[in-house]
Design goal:
With 398 residues, the chain is α/β, with parallel strands linked by helices. The protein contains 13 helices and 15 strands. The strands form 4 sheets. A 7-stranded mixed β-sheet has the order 2-10-9-8-7-3-4, with helices on both faces. The model has no long low-confidence stretch (mean pLDDT 94).
């Protein structure tokens, strides 16, 4: 190449929707946490201690020995039949396996829903705050995203009515009822009853995202919203939090009227999710393995949550507040008025601890004082050290 040659503009012309795509704040943070010595409360990663390595090794051997030709071949877009049957049987309301679509992670379920349900300029509703990955999945379809005021029990019903009446009817409300990412909160039974009734009255479909619902600590969460109105809800689940995230397997349970279009979107996206992975997961699960395995995850995560709560109570300034999640992987904290956790993060990293600033999880009107802490990947000693360091940084900058 001639270094003196004039710069040539790129011949590539980006679609308008590409301007709506932004890098994941969480993925960028993971790069920071790879620095040696950083104690990370940032990533939403399951603990590697929970990965059933021996069971996967045995299942891989069996699948390759007994079913290699099919496991390594192209497969049906809907997913592996026995796995779809297992998913349908595991849900607490009547589900036909024909309603189950296996996806490449539940994140793909969000992408497919966006492609099928959102037009440019159409309104969609989300909780305040909400899952960043959902906002990213919806954004390329160029909707008007409106936050609905929420409290410790989830979506405020009065605010939901006002939001739906404020303009053209929204296409759907996206909600994470159980141990929400990022806040860790759970919708109460009373709030679920009210939300389901309100959505049905307003003709407002719900997208119910439930990747954390099995990770309860003392008491299972109330019945899913979809169980109360199956035809008015799209339900997303995942194998990432109970088996392993790198499998990239999740599922969508769709009303029969919606399933064909989701399937067509799936076919256009990737033909099908990995057939080998699906068979391995079905092999691991076939003898009720999750009934034995998931309680061990719950016990581990509960112990780590308790260590973090105790460390926060011991070290944080009294002006800092946080919640006590009943399950999942995250808790939500709020610093005093006037503080900005995005500005605080580099200073915390310099002290050897990382977190996720909360502003990334708001569709609008972000609260800069908030932050998300994950308690499941750090050891108990690291939790103590990390919270001590974080509390010191907060005090220095108050």
């Amino acid at each position: 190449m001639n270094p003196s040659a004039p710069h040539t503009p790129s011949p590539w012309v980006l679609a308008a929707r590409a301007e709506k795509m932004n890098p994941s704040v969480l993925r960028e943070l993971l790069k920071v946490t790879e620095r040696p010595g950083i104690i990370s409360f940032a990533g939403g990663l399951p603990s590697p201690k929970t990965f059933p390595v021996d069971e996967f090794a045995a299942a891989c051997t069996k699948v390759l020995r007994d079913d290699a030709a099919a496991a390594l071949q192209y497969a049906a877009s809907e997913g592996y039949g026995p796995l779809r049957e297992m998913v349908a049987a595991s849900l607490p309301w009547p589900v036909d396996p024909s309603q189950v679509l296996i996806t490449t992670g539940s994140q793909q379920g969000l992408d497919l829903a966006a492609k099928v349900l959102i037009d440019q300029g159409s309104r969609i509703l989300v909780e305040t705050p909400t899952y960043l990955g959902a906002l990213q999945a919806f954004a390329p379809m160029e909707p008007q995203v409106q936050s609905v005021a929420s409290d410790d029990e989830g979506v405020d019903i009065t605010a939901l009515r006002q939001a739906q009446a404020a303009g053209t009817p929204a296409r759907f409300l996206y909600v994470l009822p159980n141990f929400q990412n990022p806040t860790g909160r759970t919708l109460s039974e009373a709030r679920r009853v009210a939300l389901s009734a309100c959505a049905a009255e307003l003709g407002l479909p719900l997208i119910e995202d439930n990747p954390y619902g099995e990770l309860w600590f003392d008491t299972p969460p109330p019945a899913p919203l979809t169980a109360r109105n199956p035809d008015g809800c799209l339900y997303l689940g995942s194998f990432s939090k109970v088996l392993a995230p790198s499998l990239r397997l999740g599922f969508v349970v769709a009303p029969k009227a919606l399933f064909p279009k989701l399937l067509q979107a799936k076919q256009a996206a990737d033909l099908h999710s990995p057939g080998f992975n699906q068979r391995v997961v079905a092999e691991v699960m076939k003898d009720g393995f999750l009934d034995r395995h998931v309680p061990r995850i719950r016990a581990l995560y509960k112990a780590q949550r308790d260590v973090m709560l105790a460390a926060l109570a011991q070290h944080m300034p009294p002006e800092v507040t946080w919640n006590q999640p009943d399950g999942g992987m995250f808790l939500w904290a709020c610093l005093p008025q006037g503080m900005d956790t995005a500005a605080l993060l580099p200073k915390a990293v310099d002290k050897g601890v990382a977190f996720v600033p909360g502003a990334a999880f708001y569709a609008d009107l972000a609260d800069p004082r908030t932050l998300r802490l994950s308690f499941v990947t750090a050891s108990e000693q690291e939790i103590q050290q990390g919270v001590t360091a974080l509390a010191a940084v907060i005090r220095e900058n108050m």
